[in-house]
């Protein structure tokens, strides 16, 4: 008899924890796009109230009351609204998303069946600005500026002597650069591959036509970008012109990295 009571007590404990434990959702959205945070309500009885609480860069409260058909917003951005009618689907819509929206979001639903919590964690992804440049000393620089998370950089043909540096910016973005001393006599074209959750790109630079490795008496020129081809994933190659590495991809940021001396 004691064993049966112990088993029943254990089952009751597990059931209580399963009922009270809130559901959890992880959402990754690219900056500038739309984020939709779901708050599923599966009961047939009408909900009495739905509330979103946001702990991102600021505290925000968005609520709906069924009895008064009333919505309230406290300290929330105008970019945060209900995706649908909150009495049927209280999903939260954020558009356009920016880095300040990152954080934890809690949806609470009150109905005659009880109170229910649904948690969401929002992560904002920022695609980097990518460039491939070279100087007269034969140094090629592939740079992914102000991305979140940091982009991965690799070279073709594979090179084990690259030098990488990165800068972490106050807003959470990262600028990463990879530099190699390229032998244009063996491989006239240098190609770098940038891999990032928001975008994958291939940049190629013809070093033989860039006037590299001139006389040592000539002063070294600043990094310049010539004959650059950018091939985004799933697109046909096309000639494009990219400027010298941006001095200010984000305001108050200077993402330019000098991997090695010119």
TrEMBL record:
Domain of life: Eukaryota
The keyword Disulfide bond is annotated on this UniProt entry: yes
PROSITE patterns to which the protein is assigned, alphabetical: IG_LIKE
Signal peptide: 1-25
Full protein name: Cell surface glycoprotein CD200 receptor 1-A-like isoform X2
Gene3D superfamilies: Immunoglobulins
Organism listed in the record: Apteryx mantelli (North Island brown kiwi)
Family membership: Belongs to the CD200R family.
Pfam families reported in the protein's UniProt record: C2-set_2 (PF08205), V-set (PF07686)
Keyword tags: Disulfide bond, Glycoprotein, Membrane, Receptor, Signal, Transmembrane, Transmembrane helix
Coiled coil: none
Subcellular location, record wording: Membrane
Domain named Ig-like: residues: 22-123
Membrane-protein topology: Single-pass membrane protein
InterPro entries: CD200R (IPR040012), CD80_C2-set (IPR013162), Ig-like_dom (IPR007110), Ig-like_dom_sf (IPR036179), Ig-like_fold (IPR013783), Ig_sub (IPR003599), Ig_V-set (IPR013106)
């Amino acid at each position: 008899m004691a064993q049966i009571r112990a088993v029943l007590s254990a089952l009751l404990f597990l059931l209580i924890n399963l009922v009270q434990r809130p559901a959890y959702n992880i959402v990754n959205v690219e900056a500038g796009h739309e984020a939709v945070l779901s708050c599923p309500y599966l009961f047939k009885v009408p909900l009495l109230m739905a509330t979103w609480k946001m702990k991102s860069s600021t505290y925000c409260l968005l609520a709906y009351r069924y009895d008064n058909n009333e919505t309230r917003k406290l300290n929330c951005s105008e970019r945060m609204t209900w995706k649908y009618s909150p009495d049927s689907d209280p999903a939260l819509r954020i558009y356009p998303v920016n880095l300040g929206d990152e954080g934890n979001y809690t949806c609470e639903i009150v109905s005659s069946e009880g109170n229910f919590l649904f948690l969401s964690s929002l992560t904002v992804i920022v695609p980097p600005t990518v460039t491939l440049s070279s100087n007269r000393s034969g140094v090629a620089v592939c740079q992914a500026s102000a991305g979140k998370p940091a982009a991965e950089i690799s070279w073709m043909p594979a090179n084990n002597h690259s030098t990488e540096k990165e800068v972490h910016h106050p807003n959470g973005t990262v600028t990463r650069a990879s530099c190699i001393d390229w032998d244009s006599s063996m491989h006239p074209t240098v190609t770098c591959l940038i891999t990032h959750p928001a975008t994958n790109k291939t940049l190629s630079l013809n070093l033989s036509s860039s006037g590299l490795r001139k006389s040592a008496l000539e002063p070294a020129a600043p990094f310049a970008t010539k004959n650059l081809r950018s091939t985004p994933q799933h697109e046909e190659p096309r000639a494009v012109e990219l400027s010298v590495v941006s001095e200010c991809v984000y305001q108050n940021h200077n993402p330019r990295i000098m991997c090695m001396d010119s």
